[in-house]
Amino acid sequence: MCIFNGRDYVFCDDSWQFLTYFSLWYRYGFDPLRMRNRVTKVLDHFERIYEIQQKEEVAFEQVSDLLAAMNPLLLNLTKIQYAELLETEFGLSRRFVEELAQAVTLVNYGQTVAIPSFVGMVSFAGSGAELWSVAGGNKQLPIHLAQFANARLLLNSKVDAITYLGEHRFQVDYVRLDTESDELKDHSEEYDYVIVATPMTSGSHIRFGNFTRREDLLKGIFEHYSMHQTVATFVRGSPLPSYAGKAILSCDIDNKEGGSFFTSFSPLTPVNVSEQQQQAGQATKDNNNNNNNNDDPSAASGNATGVFKLFSNNQLKTHDLYSFFDVIEEVREVIWHAYPEYGPNTVKQPFPPFKIRSGIYYLNAIEWAASAIEMSLIGGKNVALLVCHELKLCNSKRAIVDEVSSGKRKLSEDDFPPKNKRWKEQQEL
Ligand SMILES: Cc1cc2nc3c(=O)[nH]c(=O)nc-3n(C[C@H](O)[C@H](O)[C@H](O)COP(=O)(O)OP(=O)(O)OC[C@H]3O[C@@H](n4cnc5c(N)ncnc54)[C@H](O)[C@@H]3O)c2cc1C
């Protein structure tokens, strides 16, 4: 793996781990180690949520209360910009922040270190060598969860409107693709509880009806949020010799002096490749390197054909791709509205609520604290607990935490960065 600043590689790791550690120390001193220690402490606090949810069965109507219950430090981390935290509070060097920390936020969220610190810490936690991948792709998670839940699934359906009918009943209007006639058909069903499990933003198309005062409030809330665009471009081909076998993270995109047009470039390696196959792949590469008579054009340039993945904030042009590839056989592009746009003002913005009104909940509110599969699972468990408490099926002795809506705590001032107190005075890491 190398870090690229738009002009040069500022850091490259090595297959010899000792050399990697030495290069890291040479360029960034002990900052990576100090950062890793801080992240480990945050993770220790974070893990408290599993006890809260599984043993104590406590549910939260507000994202801020859920974070504060893990530890107030975590809530405070959402109120300070990542760059400021790392440089001013942790005393890490600007070089470390602008290169290593930013390469990690760019590859995970397509955004710079101007994001809130909690998002930054989550991204750094997800950058270690001990990461997991799901064999068969992340889609295996929802597939297996749906099977396990034995749920009635309505696929190929798009919800248009959720209307409150009174007496705790909701009407859900949706269009469904009829696979036999290949036509879109309107449907409408009634439910006691509705959980919205997709991000609600200024561009969302789900309408809320008959929510009276809350309806206006909802429109107002979701108008303030938007999603970040990430483009994933998959290329089957052979890379130029200088990129063969390399994974590259950019630490500098679209800056005034140019920067790079991509956030990351890496070979796509299936999770379930056996060690034997990996060795065979290496052997093929070595053969290609030594065999100039091979008919494969990629072999002539010394690079095995493979599938590569580029992430960028904008769609890539053909000449962008040819700056990486010698031979391009196939290109596929997926445009994602990937994660929230964590603009510079996010640290001052309240989170959207988990509870929209009694009977209707919003799982993805948690993504505005930080977006990751684990966060969505925690958000999902939380709204399940909220419903469980409303149905009085949960045995927890502790009540639902709703300090904000019960008026015990004001959302405005208290949820924003303390003006006179530094966050670390409240809670030392
Ligand atoms: C390119 C990329 C890479 C990522 N990599 C990682 C990673 O390595 N690790 C990690 O932890 N996280 C990763 N994430 C983030 C992760 O994918 C999200 O955190 C997670 O998918 C959120 O899950 P969710 O179920 O809450 O929402 P989503 O996965 O967004 O699911 C929402 C679903 O709702 C559907 N929907 C939307 N509107 C309607 C409607 N009106 N009616 C009916 N259905 C609707 C959508 O089609 C979608 O299927 C990545 C995200 C992207 C984009």
The largest beta-sheet arranges its strands as 2-1-9-10-11-8-12
Structural class: alpha+beta
Please state the overall shape, judged from the principal axes of the Cα atoms: globular
Fraction of residues in H or I helices: 25-40%
N/C terminus separation: 30 Å
SSE succession: EEHHHHHHHHHEEEEEHEEEHHEHEEEHHH
Largest sheet: 7 strands, mixed
Return Rg in Å: 24 Å
Q: Care to count the β-strands? A: 14
Report the portion of residues in β strands. Answer: 15-25%
Low-confidence stretches: 280-302, 410-429
Bound molecules: flavin-adenine dinucleotide
Oligomer: single chain
The number of helical runs is 16
Q: Mean pLDDT across all residues, rounded? A: 83
Give a description of the structure.
The protein is α+β, with helices and mostly antiparallel strands. The chain is 36% helix and 21% strand. The chain has helices spanning 17-28, 31-46, 48-55, 63-70, 72-77, 82-89, 94-109, 117-125, 140-149, 213-223, 275-290, 297-300, 318-322, 373-390, 412-415, 423-426; strands at residues 2-4, 9-12, 157-166, 169-178, 183-191, 194-196, 207-209, 227-239, 248-250, 264-267, 306-312, 325-340, 355-357, 360-362. It has a seven-stranded mixed beta sheet with strand order 2-1-9-10-11-8-12. A four-stranded mixed beta sheet has the order 5-4-3-7, with no helix packed on it. Strands 6-14-13 form a three-stranded mixed beta sheet, with no helix packed on it. Strand 1 and strand 2 form a beta hairpin. Helix 6 packs across helix 8 (117-125) and helix 7 (94-109) packs across helix 8 (117-125). It is globular and about 65 Å long. The model is unreliable at 280-302 and 410-429 (pLDDT under 50). The structure holds flavin-adenine dinucleotide. Flavin-adenine dinucleotide (FAD) is lined by residues 157-159, 197-198, 205-206, 230, 232, 336, 338, 363-364, 371-374, 376.
